[in-house]
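Researcher: Hi, I'm a grad student and pretty new to this. My advisor asked me to get structures for two proteins we've been looking at. I'm not sure of the right format, so I'll just paste the first sequence and hope you can take it from there.
Model: That works fine. Here's the first sequence with its structure tokens right after it:
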Amino acid sequence: MNPTIELLKSHRSIRKFKDQPLPDGLLETLISAGQCAATSNQVQAYTVIRVTNTENRETLAELAGGQPWIKAASEFLVFCADMKRATEAAERAGADVVRGMTEQLLVASIDAALMAQNVAVAAESEKLGICYIGGLRNNPEQVSELLRLPEHVYPVFGMCIGYPDHDPQVKPRLPVETILKQDYYDDSQDQAQVDAFDDTMHQYYLERTGGKKDSNWSEELKPLFTDKLRPHMKEFLEKRGFGVK
């Protein structure tokens, strides 16, 4: 493997950070690297909010479900899908713009995610650790109010960045043959491969917790399809001007 692939395969979520700020200019360099990600039609449909206000960080930590690493990280960023800037630019250029298209929601969300992943890889190349915070979508309306987000902008997720103060294991992933299909979607081997992966994850959880966590991949998925569905997101996105046509 070359160094880039080795870096990508070493990713862990970091939730304990040293009390150490980033050097001057490094955050801006990471954001600039993020901007080099692919973007649909050069729309660049994202805005990043750097949250430095201590009280706001504490509020976001609670809104995200009680995640103290939001307060402890050197930097906390909120990645927003932003169709406001580009739509208004097209309008000033003379376009009779159409707002609220589902495709606009997809473009902005994907642009924000691609940009954020570039930031994550750039940060890890500088020996920093990161942790995505999807929990901001638990209370997206309150997050939007706190950050003063206008219409046609919504918070997709947050990201903690800082110098790691622990060294967690790399979490296993599904085998490549499970997610890489050839020519057609063939799931004939999926169940057997998932069963084998459940065994792998069971061992991982036992080792990581010193035998305290008796679970596997399938078990950990259950809450995501029961009590973490976030049914409020549809109404919230429609109120923000996204995904209604």
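Researcher: Oh nice, that was easy. Here's the second one.
Model: And its structure:
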Amino acid sequence: MEADPEFELQGLCHLALVCEDMERTVDFYTNVLGMKLKKTINMPNGGQHFFFDMGGDQFLAFFWFPDAPKRAPGIASSAVLPGLGDIATAHASMNHVAFKIPLDKFDEYKAKLDAKGVETGPVLEHDDSPRGVAETFHEGVYVRSMYFFDPDGVLLEFAAWTRELTEDDVNLAPMTAAGVPAGQGASA
């Protein structure tokens, strides 16, 4: 992979989310997902900031604020699991966190979540079809995934790449705020 000439980015340091109940969050991420709690911080405002090891020297962090606003599903977070309805969220929201898992462990990990009472959505075979998801696995599927919520409604994904991505996988112009592909301008 070619290095960035301006910044030597080395992956994700941490992603910081907000929870309603830190005890419940610690229980879910350590006892259900098996992450190790690596750092706990008391904040001057009475809040807390905890870091969980996701592997690869990368962390998932949570803030607990004593007076944080309540969650707003369908605005700041997804209201439903992918494959079961519209997952759109507001601008500047965090839609979901995807954990990379080995493809050969996918079914085993699904069974483990089921055994722990975690409701998962349907297994999604992501492809480049107009729907974006295939009914069954085929050679065009690039990632296999399952989604579930944590106790605070944070949408999580277990994702397994099924093939290497190539230059051919970058073939769309980005959309503008007006909903048109970049460079095409608004039509009259």
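Researcher: Is there anything I should tell my advisor about the second?
Model: You could mention this: Residues 11-69 form a domain with the 2,3-Dihydroxybiphenyl 1,2-Dioxygenase; domain 1 fold (CATH 3.10.180.10).
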